[in-house]
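Hi there,

I know you've been waiting on this one. I reran it after we fixed the sequence typo, so this is the corrected version. Both the input and the resulting structure follow.
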Amino acid sequence: SSRLPTADVFQRVKVVADTRINGLIVSGNRADRKVVEELLGVIDSEELLDTLQQVTPTTVQLTSASAKSVASVVQDVYKSQLTAGAGRRPVQIPEGVSTSVAIMLQQINAQAASPILTVAVDEITNSIVLRAPIDLTTEIKAFIEKLDRDSVDAPGRRVRLLRLESANSKNLEKALKILMSK
């Protein structure tokens, strides 16, 4: 089962943030409050909170560039974030914590071993779908949008076939070359 052993504890307790004192008010029985306190003693760090945040997919639709090409660039630039672990350190499990807290921290470590970024292409909508923490998503989205804007002016990226009504294509090609050289 993917249910955390402390999930039952969190069904029984209420936790409310008090921003005035930068603290949490925890309501529940003594044993449950102890589990929450133990867990907070380990996870009270910005780095770990970034790991635990809910990550939802974000879609970035491109107007000029090919989603497939841009996704390839993103995958090259963000290669380390696409690899397992992505440089994150596991949470140290302190001695003396309860078994339920130790198991929960092991599961957090297993989750942290996975890549923090996934990139997919939706060719039908010419979009890139990202799944990453909020800060990384914001950074990559801005990068994708810049690549999309830059592709508008990229030479050789746009080709268009112009059908001629009656003139000979060879003669018009010569005429255009003469006009463009002036």
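Quick highlight: Helices lie at 7-12, 30-43, 46-52, 67-77, 99-112, 134-152, 169-181.

Best,
R. S.
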